[in-house]
Every structure is written in structure tokens, then in C-alpha cells.
Specification:
alpha/beta, Collagenase (Catalytic Domain), 5-stranded mixed beta sheet, 7 strands
Length: 237
């Protein structure tokens, strides 16, 4: 299948001038996605040797296809897809749509898994957690919220399987865990009789402390682009 390129439409929804983020901030998020999904991120060399055989290049890339800007009086959009109803996705079958807005409630972002309603398909990211420059807020100021949420959009579950040790994320090479990790955990962090892959993008750690996808995650993501797959139409645009 080779390298898959996904075209991206970014919808900037703002209630004040500071939320009308710069093109540089938009471009920085695309750059982070490309670095993280292609394993060219400069922090990958921090990886503990235990996981050397797991870290991988997913061979998925992203190209900004267009940025749309919408002024709105709404200062908080929540997680019920209201922002998508107000500003619908554009050709979601062939493009990743990302809405950048104030979500509220301390929510960094949320995403729709493959196979859902096309009218709500895409990713929503809080304005201050989008990209790595401009109007961003530490410790989520390196664009990794985007990497995490696009992971969901491409069918990845949270690393701990959203449950206790017996719950799975359907990826064999990510160790079982008892729940999310936060902050910057020290290695090793032990749960479920194994060391957690706290540096995986699908955990809840700070941006500076997540820096890898696993080979199993790569295979799970790429399967949806195969003929008959839920995102096959995205490939090759």
C-alpha cells in the first residue's frame, strides 16, 4: 500500500481574535502529525530499550488542503458535535476534517472512530491544544492532542483499553494497563504485571512525554485503508 497521504481541512471557529489562530499555528499541527506518524519526531530517541522493537513509522502523512475560518458568538462548544452541525465537514469521505474551537470543561479534544455518521466525521481539538506554536497552553502545547485524536480517527483505542487489566486495545504489542497515565511518568511504570508504554501517543501523558506508535498500532490503522476498509476512500487523494 505504500505511504498513505491524507488531505486535511481545518475549520477554525473563533469567538475572539486570539482564537482566530494564525496560519503558522495551523501549519505547525500538520508538521507535528507528519513527524509523529512518520517517526521523524526528534524525541523518539528517548525510548526505553524494552520497546525498541515496537516503535514504528506508520507511513501515514497529512497535507493541509484548506483552512476555513468562522466567527461565532459561541464561547464553548462542548463534546456533542454542535460545532460540526454549525459548520459541517467538507467531503469527509476523502478528507480528514479538524475543527479547532473552544470546547470547554477542560477537554483537550475528541474524535469519531471509523464507520460513524459522515455528517459528524472528523476530529475536534481545543484551540490552545492545537499545534505547537502560537496560542497554545502547556503542558499540551506540542501538538500531541492532534496526534492522539487522529489516532482515534484512524481506529486506535486508548492504550489501556478503557478498562482495567483485562480490557484490551486490540493491539498485541502494547502492554496491558490498569488505566491512563498522566503527567510525565518515570520508567518503568508497572501495571498488570508489565511495564506501561506510557510514552505511547494513545495514553494521557503530557505532550513532551509521548512520542511513539507501535507496530501493532500501525497495522491496525493501515487496515482501514485496505479495499473495503472503513477509510479506504481517504487513501490516495
Amino acid at each position: 500500500m505504500g505511504v498513505i497521504n491524507i488531505p486535511v481541512y481545518v475549520h477554525v471557529v473563533y469567538s475572539n481574535s486570539v482564537e482566530n489562530i494564525s496560519s503558522a499555528q495551523v501549519n505547525s499541527q500538520i508538521s507535528v502529525l507528519n513527524a509523529d506518524f512518520r517517526k521523524t519526531n526528534n524525541d523518539a530517541n528517548q525510548l526505553p530499550s524494552e520497546f525498541d522493537n515496537a516503535i514504528t513509522d506508520s507511513e501515514i502523512e497529512f497535507t493541509l488542503a484548506g483552512t476555513f475560518r468562522y466567527a461565532s458568538s459561541n464561547t464553548s462548544w462542548g463534546t456533542n458535535d454542535a460545532v460540526k452541525s454549525a459548520y459541517p465537514p467538507i467531503t469527509p469521505e476523502t478528507h480528514l476534517n479538524i475543527w479547532v474551537c473552544s470546547i470547554g470543561g477542560g477537554i483537550l479534544g475528541y474524535a469519531q472512530f471509523p464507520g460513524g455518521n459522515s455528517s459528524t466525521d472528523g476530529v475536534v481539538i481545543g484551540t490552545q491544544y492545537f499545534g505547537s506554536t502560537g496560542y497554545v497552553a502547556a503542558p499540551f502545547d506540542k501538538g500531541r492532542t492532534g496526534t492522539h485524536e487522529v489516532g482515534h480517527y484512524l481506529n486506535l483505542r486508548h492504550i489501556w483499553g478503557d478498562g482495567r487489566c483485562r480490557q484490551d486495545d486490540f493491539v498485541a504489542d502494547t502492554p496491558s494497563s490498569d488505566g491512563p497515565n498522566y503527567g510525565c511518568p518515570s520508567y518503568p511504570t508497572v501495571n498488570c504485571k508489565s511495564n506501561d508504554m506510557t510514552m505511547n501517543y494513545m495514553d494521557y501523558t503530557n505532550d513532551t512525554c509521548m512520542y511513539m506508535f507501535s507496530d501493532g498500532q500501525r497495522n491496525r490503522m493501515r487496515a482501514i485503508f485496505a479495499p473495503g476498509g472503513s477509510r479506504a476512500a481517504l487513501a490516495g487523494n
